[in-house]
Amino acid sequence: MLAFYKDPEKWVTGSYIKIGYFGNSDSDLKYQDEVHGSLIEQIDKTVDLVYTKYLKP
User: Fold this and answer.
1) Is the Cα dihedral 37, 38, 40, 46 positive or negative?
2) Is the dihedral of CA 31, 24, 45, 17 positive or negative?
3) Cα 42 to chain center, whole Å?
4) pLDDT per residue rounded down to tens, the chain (57 residues)
5) Alpha carbon of 4 to those of 12, 16, 17, 47: distances in Å?
6) 52 burial type by CB count under 10 A (0-12 exposed, 13-18 middle, 19+ buried)
7) Where are the domains of the chain?
8) Which residues contact 40 (CB under 8 A, 6 or more apart)?
9) Are 42 and 48 in contact (CB under 8 A)?
10) How far is it, in rounded angstroms, from Cα 46 to Cα 36?
11) C-alpha angle 53/55/57, rounded to 5°?
12) How far, rounded to the nearest angstrom, does the alpha carbon of residue 4 sit from its chain's CA centroid?
């Protein structure tokens, strides 16, 4: 169900990915994102998000 169902959070709460970008300390959260959807979609969206937003040159 987690891999292919369109809305797995309907059945399994907390089945999403949360990503955060921290500054100089552990309490300095610059920004964060949540990725929802099926497990396959979450992985695809997370990889795209990490490369486009979180990896800075």
Assistant:
1) positive
2) negative
3) 7
4) 888 888 888 888 888 999 999 989 989 999 999 999 999 999 999 999 999 999 976
5) 13, 14, 16, 18
6) exposed
7) 8-54
8) 3, 4
9) no
10) 10
11) 115
12) 17
